[in-house]
Specification:
This protein is 29% helix and 12% strand. It is of the alpha/beta class and 374 residues long. Bound molecules: zinc ion. Residues 28-29, 153-154, 223, 227, 263 line the site of zinc ion.
């Protein structure tokens, strides 16, 4: 372990020991500078050695033990084997904030940077799925393609706005996604927007604007009402933040959130189990809860998958700052390219879950009847 990482482990260990809370960052969802070093230290050997990512909690999605042994996996089709399908591999969930030509902070990207990253994904045979599709295991992409989840936080107008003619305003994230789909038709123009009290600052126009997105397969989801740091916040306040945002999401999109992202990636820590906030009666029921860093997610079909703590990757070049030379999007996409056996590759059949015989034991039991192996 590099000395810097050892130091980071000591620092965060001491902070936890003394109950110190890490300060939020005013600019957005970046949690802390030390966090990538700590999580990344766990992730690098896993990525290099071919194992699953070490970032997820053990246990995975809670599920009852089957009363009868699961059926043995069926043999995979020739095409699945030919494309080396691996639906237990890692999936990059990329986190974006504002799309600003200039004046952005380090978590923002320029239109040119977003365009370059999406083009790189399209050329790399990645196909976007929404966060909801991902957590529900609805990954319907061609054989040989890799899913990528594009998430945009805070509902900023640089992500989505319509011009006077009713088209996405130039250089917004949605306009750039549509451009990329026109250039690479297999690249589905879908994404997830984690929004707060005034989605895209549309005010009274929010219903019409969000309808435009929802009709085209984009996902609108809960990111709290006022974007507070939930760490240490009393339970009743956390619940109020989530509940009020859920009212907004239902009002503007016509349906409840399927997913949720913590502001700043900070979990409330006010209950023994953070997943106490995954659902609250009929008020909200999330099927996936997203963090702010720093690894690809394990596959939703893996027994390692924990739907209460899904890792995302910040969109950023390979710069030293914040560990982005290893743990932001450019670096991770390179790592996944170099370790193709670790990456999720589709078998082309959304009803089947295919993996090589060496890794099928990682399949979560609730998917046993869909298993295919080669
Ligand atoms: Zn945010």
């Amino acid at each position: 372990m590099p000395t810097l990482h050892k130091f980071a482990v000591l620092v965060i260990g001491a902070a936890l020991l003394f109950g110190l809370l890490l300060p939020p960052d005013d600019d957005g969802d970046r949690t802390t500078v030390v966090k990538p070093a700590v999580q990344g230290t766990e992730a690098v050997p896993a990525a290099v050695s071919g194992g699953p990512t070490a970032s997820a909690s053990p246990g995975g999605t809670p599920s009852a033990a089957p009363s009868t042994p699961p059926p043995p996996p069926q043999p995979a089709g020739a095409q699945a084997a030919q494309v080396k399908a691996n639906e237990l591999g890692q999936v990059p969930v990329i986190m974006y904030h504002r799309i600003l030509a200039k004046g952005g902070s380090e978590i923002d990207r320029t239109p040119g940077e977003l365009r370059a990253e999406l083009e790189r994904l399209a050329k790399g045979n990645y196909v976007p799925v929404t966060a909801a599709e991902f957590v529900q295991g609805r990954i319907d992409i061609p054989a040989g393609a890799h899913p990528v989840v594009l998430t945009f936080d805070d509902g900023n107008p640089t992500q989505f706005a319509l011009d006077a003619a009713g088209n996405p305003a130039p250089d917004t994230a949605v306009a750039i996604l549509m451009e990329m789909h026109a250039k690479y038709p297999a690249f589905r123009p879908v994404a997830t927007f984690f929004v707060n009290k005034d989605p895209f600052q549309l005010g009274e126009e929010a219903n019409a604007g969000v309808s435009w997105l929802v009709q085209r397969g984009f996902e609108i989801a809960n990111h709290t009402y006022t974007h507070p740091n939930l760490a240490g916040m009393p339970t009743a306040k956390v619940e109020s933040e989530i509940a009020k945002a859920e009212e907004v999401v239902k009002k503007v999109s016509g349906s409840p959130s399927v997913t949720f992202a913590y502001p700043f990636g900070n979990t409330p820590r006010t209950r023994a189990k953070d997943n106490a906030f995954v659902s609250k009666g009929d008020t909200w029921q999330f099927q996936g809860v997203f963090l702010a860093g720093w690894n690809p997610s394990v596959s939703v079909f893996s027994k390692e998958f924990d739907n209460t703590k899904i890792s995302r990757i910040r969109s950023e070049d390979k710069v030293k700052k914040d560990g982005c030379d290893k743990f932001c999007s450019t670096a991770w996409l390179e790592t996944l390219d170099k370790n193709p056996d670790n990456r999720y590759t589709s078998d082309g059949d959304p009803a089947a879950v295919t993996a090589p015989s060496g890794s099928i034991s990682q399949l979560a039991p609730q998917y046993a009847d869909r298993a295919r192996v080669y």
